[in-house]
Design a protein that fits this description.
The complex is a heterodimer of chains A (300) and B (184).
Chain A: H1 3-8, E1 9-12, H2 25-38, E2 41-44, H3 53-57, H4 61-77, E3 82-84, H5 88-103, H6 105-115, E4 124-126, H7 128-143, E5 152-155, H8 165-168, H9 178-185, E6 189-190, H10 209-225, E7 230-233, H11 236-244, H12 246-253, E8 261-263, H13 264-271, H14 289-294
Chain B: H1 7-10, H2 14-22, H3 34-38, H4 49-58, H5 61-65, H6 69-72, H7 78-82, H8 89-102, H9 111-127, H10 132-142, H11 153-159, H12 173-182
The chains are: A alpha/beta (300), B mainly alpha (184).
């Protein structure tokens, strides 16, 4: 392996929600599809486990830390310097746990004993927007095949990509712009709006659907009133809540939004000329035809 | 809101205990209310986030640990991000939830939320990853009143091939069991 290829090979931690046959599989499908065209090369970490998500950190801090950190140790064992976790719940948990064991020696020892592996502090965990921004902006400009017409995108970041800012150290927690830059790079219009980092209710989708319906209503209203005709996301929970709850919202608030919710990776894929089906565009609840059709012009 | 405080509570070590467990110093909070102002779920809570901090400051253990608020916190971390005194409020909710479960005093009104966490972690413990279908089944079985809620979503997910009945077991299942055993 040459130095150059080693540099661009990144450990891939899909997490449970975006693997095949899971509720957000189109996110994983499109992330991998895009990486095959513009890189960087992603290789799945062998035998990764669930990070424990909100259920672990909300009820048992040490369990949450150990479940997350095990994956980082596995990545180091496989020889990766950097890991991509496209799901922000995963990336946030992995980074916070890495930070917690770094700051607390006793916790570190307990966790090392539990996972029966040394804890690595050298592996960098990145979210999807970071990976695109750091490795692929030039490739997007170079390999872009289609220019969307009339597509006005509200970039929705949610909570987990940007908070807690001191630990995640990614973008501005009140007004992030990385996803907007990517939206602009693929030739769509990035809509300025106020709900970029508002919470969608995340993991309450089953246990407190009424909370999710209210919060997603506010977000959809914010996007629609700012003139967006699509919302871009980079989080399976944001996607599920915004995409699956629009019927409930209509019933509750009497307003029909019908706004397609698309992963940023799907938008990049469409711009690169990938087939909609290969990006999982047919897996959504809200029809994505409008977005797909916007990309029908071949760029000169 | 009026709450009677006993001398015993005022002299209790609740705030100290919280600090020892989590490193969070609630004494730094001067009750400006910025956390509550930005909380997206405050409208649904029985006590506001700043009131929960006040409970911990004053040693009101029962009020804090039996509140519905600690369960309704969505962990969006807006509060901790904006706090002028850098009190980690969202992280405080985590430690209070943990203590409430340990002491068996979690508010029964938010049983849906605690049962969801239980079902989720049971799936991780069993397979090493989440099996969405079986996690959902366990949750619905334990919370029969939610059985009809979202009844139309499950079949749609299945039709789109997004809900698999076959769980994926990782090879290192044993090491996951060990982690759960160690941090019961």
């Amino acid at each position: 392996m040459t130095e150059e290829t080693k540099k661009t090979k990144i450990g891939y931690y899909p997490g449970c929600a975006i693997t095949k046959c899971s509720t957000s599989e189109e996110y994983g499908t499109s992330v991998l599809g895009v990486s095959r065209v513009i890189g960087p090369e992603l290789v799945e970490i062998d035998d990764w486990n669930c990070c424990g998500a909100s259920s672990a950190h909300a009820t048992n801090h040490k369990l949450s830390t150990a479940l997350s950190v095990r994956n980082i140790s596995l990545a180091e064992k496989d020889g990766y310097d950097e890991v991509l976790a496209p799901c922000p719940m995963c990336s946030q948990r992995l980074i916070i746990s890495q930070n917690d064991v770094h700051e607390d020696k006793k916790l570190r020892e307990e966790v090392e004993d539990a996972i029966e592996m040394p804890i690595s502090s050298n592996v960098k965990v990145s979210n999807y927007l970071e990976i695109i921004k750091n490795y692929s902006m030039d490739e997007i400009a170079e390999k872009r095949k289609k220019k969307p017409e009339g597509l006005k995108v509200a970039s929705y970041y949610g909570c987990l990509l940007v908070r807690p800012p001191k630990i995640l150290k990614f973008d501005d927690p009140e007004n992030p712009t990385t996803m907007d830059e990517i939206v602009t790079a693929i030739g769509a219009e990035a809509v300025d709006w106020e709900f970029k980092t508002n919470c969608c209710g995340g993991g309450f989708t089953l246990s407190r659907p009424n909370v999710v319906v209210k919060l997603t209503h506010d977000i959809l209203e914010g996007a629609a009133d700012a003139g967006a005709n699509a919302i871009a996301v980079a989080c399976p929970m944001c996607h599920a809540n915004l995409d699956m709850r629009q019927k409930n919202i209509e019933k509750e608030y009497g307003r029909r939004f019908n706004i397609p919710i698309v992963y940023i990776s799907e938008l990049i894929g469409l711009a690169l000329g990938l087939k909609p089906k290969d990006l999982g565009m047919d897996k959504h609840f809200i029809d994505t035809d409008f977005v797909v059709d916007a990309f029908s012009n071949i760029e000169e | 809101m009026k709450i009677k405080i006993t001398t015993k509570e005022l002299k209790s070590d609740f705030a100290k205990e919280v600090k020892e467990r989590s490193g969070i110093d609630v004494k730094k909070c001067y009750q400006c209310g910025k956390c509550t102002a930005g909380c997206p779920v405050a409208y649904e809570m029985d006590y506001m986030p700043n009131q929960i901090i006040r409970f911990v400051q004053l040693g009101l253990r029962r009020e804090a640990l039996t509140s519905r608020t600690i369960w309704l916190c969505a962990s969006c971390i807006t509060c901790s991000t904006r706090c002028p005194k850098e009190v980690k409020i969202a992280e405080l909710m985590d430690v209070l939830r943990e203590m409430a479960l340990e002491e068996g005093v979690a508010n029964p009104m938010e049983k849906n939320i605690t049962t969801f966490h239980e079902a989720f972690l049971n799936s991780v413990k069993k397979h090493g990853r989440i099996s969405e279908f079986w996690m959902l089944s366990e949750y619905k079985r334990k919370r029969p009143k939610t059985a009809l809620q979202d009844i139309e979503i499950g079949p749609q997910l299945m039709l789109k091939g997004k809900l698999s009945l076959t769980p994926h077991d990782i090879k290192g299942k044993k090491s996951i069991k060990r982690i759960f055993e160690k941090f019961k």
